[in-house]
């Protein structure tokens, strides 16, 4: 249809959640209201249309035509709208949605707005959308079953979500844009728009070598062993092994600094042990609650910042830890029903996940009930207790002259690689008894807790040397949310510190340096990596 418009009002900022149209010639975005276009049969985040603004169209009028949408486009639009609604309406936004409870009802309700195709007489399309989203793994995330110990009912699954959570990348797949964006990420939601969208994961820029990625991506996808898997929005596979039974698992990705990275393109390792030096630890640049480093019964929110307890005490650690310096984070107690409790604080990697924080030598905690502090299962009076609505602060200061502080993180390259659900993981054995015997105190180290901005005093001094992670342990159905910074509700004014959020990119830098030094110093395949050149 053609609609007359007096002028073009270019939108400086996108109006997500409204019906927006992208010109197929100048690629600028406009709200439909700008030109008085009837949007009664339109939805936000639709892609099945052709639109030319009145500046670009030869007639001087705007041109808008809806097209028939395929199931992939309909699923994309449905998930985008569900994601946006959750972001704007829910206290804890979701990124994954139930096929039966969310996606199918949405498409059924808005079918006429999503496509010009007539609604089919037989209800076969619900099964077809599952096949479509399960097949299009470069666009959709799929989770077939709830996590072990999760309270989510099995009937809510499978769940689906968008791989790219940047909704501004969604738009019509104009042919000219496909050509102009050939060097952009192949997993782009609209098949070719959103130039300038960036990859997620550890140092995305470091992965783009020589400006060309298309050929490499195709090779990687053809190899079932080394297929390049894109990670979900918050940087970790939805289905993964948990740290338990004396073993820990570290997500791995191809190491671009390996001496022979071309080996990643070969299938010669099928049925053989995969060399660990070809891979590195995969880090996400944001500090969040770890999905794998937790008791499976704990339920983590989609944004990985809220956790709900289940039955007896169990623990979750953050994704990043610190080995030196002064650091701080906050926890808000969202819900604490009667007969529930929390122990919050700091833990080393070997702290027992199926026990309360402060149970062993590797962790220090502050309990909600009576404000007791715990270490090695010994409780001592510390402060008054805390409860629902309280905002708690956690400060740690680790000297910079210890052996741990001077060390780089482990590269894990000497560990075995295992494959789980199309992803590779380093497998590390825990030697708890040996680690306990080697623990030594660190002079001038300290831990301080805060309650609603008030310093509760030094809880621990001269703690055991090691790498410490923010940690949460909950008893029964208590709910807490964590804030790693940099903005806090009650920032301490009596101490200097860095927010835990700074450790995101800090860890990327440390691990990159450790990986590069490994290749410089370590013999690989019977030869040494090239020496440094002056």
TrEMBL record:
InterPro entries: ASH2 (IPR037353), ASH2-like_PHD (IPR049455), ASH2L-like_WH (IPR053835), B30.2/SPRY (IPR001870), B30.2/SPRY_sf (IPR043136), ConA-like_dom_sf (IPR013320), SPRY_dom (IPR003877). CDD domains: PHD_ash2p_like, SPRY_Ash2. Residues 141-158 have a biased composition (Basic and acidic residues). Residues 141-237 are annotated as: Disordered. Residues 266-489 form the B30.2/SPRY domain. SUPFAM superfamilies: Concanavalin A-like lectins/glucanases. Residues 176-188 have a biased composition (Polar residues). GO terms for cellular component: MLL1 complex; Set1C/COMPASS complex. It is found in: Nucleus. Keywords: Chromatin regulator, DNA-binding, Metal-binding, Methylation, Methyltransferase, Nucleus, Phosphoprotein, Transcription, Transcription regulation, Transferase, Ubl conjugation, Zinc, Zinc-finger. It comes from the Eukaryota. PROSITE patterns: B302_SPRY (PS50188). Residues 189-201 have a biased composition (Gly residues). One of its GO terms (biological process) is methylation. GO terms for molecular function: methyltransferase activity; transcription cis-regulatory region binding; zinc ion binding. Pfam families: ASH2L-like_WH, PHD_ash2p_like, SPRY. PANTHER family: SET1/ASH2 HISTONE METHYLTRANSFERASE COMPLEX SUBUNIT ASH2, SET1_ASH2 HISTONE METHYLTRANSFERASE COMPLEX SUBUNIT ASH2. Transcriptional regulator. Component or associated component of some histone methyltransferase complexes which regulates transcription through recruitment of those complexes to gene promoters. Component of the Set1/Ash2 histone methyltransferase (HMT) complex, a complex that specifically methylates 'Lys-4' of histone H3, but not if the neighboring 'Lys-9' residue is already methylated. As part of the MLL1/MLL complex it is involved in methylation and dimethylation at 'Lys-4' of histone H3. May play a role in hematopoiesis. This is Set1/Ash2 histone methyltransferase complex subunit ASH2.
